[in-house]
Amino acid sequence: MKVMIFVCGEGLGHTSRCISIGKELVNAGHDVHFGAYGYSMELIQRKGFKTHEIPSEITLVGMAGSLNMKKSILATFKRGQFLGIIKIRKLLKRTRPDVVISDSYFMGMISARTRSIPCYLIVNQSNMEEFFKGKGVSSKILAEVVKKFYTGLFKMTDKVIIPDYPLPHTVCRKNLEFKDKTWKKVFFSGPLIGKTFEETTAKELNRPHVLCTIGGFGYREPIFRKVIEAAGMDSSINYTLLSGPSIDPASLGTLPENVTVLKFIDDQFPYMKASDVIIAPGGHSTMMEALSFGIPMISVPDKKHSEQQNNALVIEEDGLGKKLEYSASPEDILRNIRLLIDDEKYRNKLTEMREQAVKLNGPVAVRMMVEEKPDTVK
Length: 378
Prior knowledge:
With about 375 residues, the protein is of the alpha/beta class. The protein has 2 domains: about 1-190 and about 360-370, Rossmann fold (3-Layer(aba) Sandwich), CATH 3.40.50.2000; about 210-360, Glycogen Phosphorylase B (Rossmann fold, 3-Layer(aba) Sandwich). Helix content is about 40%, strand content about 15%. The chain has helices at about 10-25, 40-45, 70-80, 85-95, 105-115, 135-155, 180-185, 220-230, 270-275, 285-290, 305-315, 330-340, 345-360, 360-370; strands at about 1-5, 30-35, 50-55, 60-65, 65, 100-105, 120, 160, 185-190, 210, 240, 260, 275-280, 295-300, 320-325. The strands form 3 sheets. The chain has a 7-stranded parallel β-sheet, sandwiched between helices. It has a 6-stranded parallel β-sheet with strand order 12-11-10-13-14-15, with helices on both faces. A two-stranded antiparallel sheet has the order 4-5. Helix 1 (about 10-25) crosses helix 14 (about 360-370). The longest helix is centred in the middle third of the chain and has 20 residues, at about 135-155. The protein is globular. The model is unreliable at about 60-75 (pLDDT under 50).
């Protein structure tokens, strides 16, 4: 079987979970092609997959930690990026896949449907209209347009893949809203992560250990520095912080002896396996990785980012970690780190999530579903 996987390049979470599917399909003997762009395409190529460059689909616009979805959609239309559907149709005509999997890349799914190719859509949010609530009449109108667009997409696809634990343990459940007919198409695959707990060799790090992937650039810099300050209050806990490529670790001054700052990690799974707590924003893919490795999280979701805020709420409500705001003090951060390290109920709950992820085996579940004849719900 020849499979084309289209990847939304706005955030590497989409890329990592698609790579996990691609790897499973290749190992099963299928001919896998990827459609991607930007750094996402470069990462996929480095993994050795057959890769085709595709046009980006959406221009993200925002500032000060807030995503402005209205401006993002308008900017996308102004650039004419949706006209890239012609290029996608030509790519499908040339490669002739038997199946298309599209991770939040809607031109790929629409093009597949127009060529009568079975298609599967991967999403972890279906209520994008939440971005427009309480933002004026024009935003309300745009929200309705977006909702109708999404509803139409869900009608087209053969299956909607949610790369998450099944209900009631779904982390992104507050971001899911489907009509009854669409719910019949929904498939909870389980977490789709780049490397499993069993495949990973833990990095040799002093324990207890905290891995912080917040980053130190722009609006995230204050919370990044507060984590460093919290580390200085208790030398018994060790930290690895990822600053991102825009921050020179030397510019941070003298660091506590229990803190290591790195710009980037090619493979963060060995660090993850060696950690007792992960501090991260509210991105869905990072949460799936942490839960699959059985590690509690402190989530600091971006301001006015409804998806991240909802994910972080579920993490706290389900006893999988804690939700903090950017206003949290170093004392607040340290207190929650100690809680997640010391409280046995968190360790027990996270062990259950890790074991459940192994049983679900997301990539295998998706592969088996794709190998079956699509049972489209009309």
